[in-house]
Design goal:
Blueprint: H1 3-14, H2 18-26, E1 42-49, H3 54-57, H4 74-77, E2 101-104, E3 109-112, H5 116-119, E4 125-132, H6 138-147, H7 157-165, E5 175-181, E6 208-209, H8 228-249, H9 252-275, H10 282-287, H11 298-310, E7 315-321, H12 329-353, E8 360-365, E9 369-379, E10 382-388, E11 392-397, E12 405-407, E13 409-410, E14 417-419, E15 422-423, H13 424-434, E16 444-446, E17 449-451
Parallel strand pairs: 1-7, 1-8, 4-12, 4-15, 5-6, 5-7
Antiparallel strand pairs: 2-3, 4-11, 8-11, 9-10, 13-14, 16-17
Amino acid sequence: MDFTAGRRQFLRGSGLSLGGVALAALSGDARALSHIAPKARRVIYLFMHGGPSQLDLLDHKPGLKRLHGQEIPASVIGEQRLTGMTSAQKSKPVTASLFKFARHGRSGAWVSELLPRTAKMVDELCIIRSMHTEAINHDPAVTFLQTGHQQPGRPSFGAWLSYGLGCESQDLPAFVVMVSRGSAARPADPLYARLWGSGFLPSNHQGVSLRSSGDPVLYLSNPREVDRAARRDQLDVIAALNRRQFEQHQDPETLTRIAQYEMAFRMQSSVPELTAVHGESEATLDSYGPQVRQPGSFAANCLLARRMAERGVRFIQLYHRGWDQHYNLPSDLRLQCGDIDQPCAALIRDLKQRGLLEETLVVWGGEFGRTSYSQGKLEPANHGRDHHGRCFSLWLAGGGVKPGLVFGETDDFSFNIVRDPVHVHDLNATLLHQLGLDHERLTYRFQGRDYRLTDVHGRVVKGLLA
């Protein structure tokens, strides 16, 4: 039985109407089904938008130092598809990392000097060095990783999770998104709201974006002349009109509208409480670094992510911009890592100390990696790297994945995978599995066919699991 059929059977057996379940799901009363015993209840996704360089952070290639400046062998590139930025570049000089690497923890994982605090947490991490994707440009690559398809229009991971497992919180959405700007002064690649959209799923499953200034959510505050009691009366009248509309047309989106108004009303109290971090201890605030007191920073958003995890938010998406280092990589990568290194380590430690890490899947990574040859001229202390989807690195923590593991291997140039490849669909299938969902059964019928996050691909990578 697939997921959709199972849900129908559940509704018939329980005597609940479709409208009743729609309202229940949005009020936090999750009645969805799990396929298998879950290891995790939620996801915190730390997305480094732009494509961090695996060669300079997590995939140590000391042999490149003796080849530095030489042409990368044509046999290494093979038939690899290159972007228009370097496909016609006559010289493609091998570019070794300028940063030092060292082994850390019991696992002995190699980590760059740019991530000293993350390095201290390696025995909590499951580092995947063999991720790969077909996409080579930012928008299709981010869309692919987040929705399982390079073209827009599909539901995002968070929307699928909200649809599959419902919402644990009575007063906060199942899916929340926060965006921070990196310290590297780079043009801002666009992050479209469709990346946290619901696609063809009911619209209540889309992500809610928190802002760093003004009201955290648009229209969270009532107009000055409207008090809470008046707002309650207004919503009751609107709900009655919407129910009458539903009785006439039986459009489920009408019930979704009622439930979204109700959630927004409850968020008027819950969101200010969520974002009021002054109750956190000084030790906790200091652990996330000095930027934690700056609203909208990556550090502040990591602390909010932990607070959301405590309050039952199902999928917490943090985007950090500025990782597209086509030039000035040595200086800009250092700045970007300065933004995220301490907060990432603090988040893992904080979750673990509070007993939340084992039921929270933390994901860190970007949409692809970077090339082992220089884009443009290779200078003694400066260079850039082009996009590279053939192999890149990502780490997981908590949620039943194997801690202290380095999984997969790339060739001597970090250009091709030589052991244990993990495709985007494999990653998503594995994450869903840890959340209690079979990626082949979590489906939604749209335009005459069943869709799923992993399209018609994907396998659970058992080697990643504890």
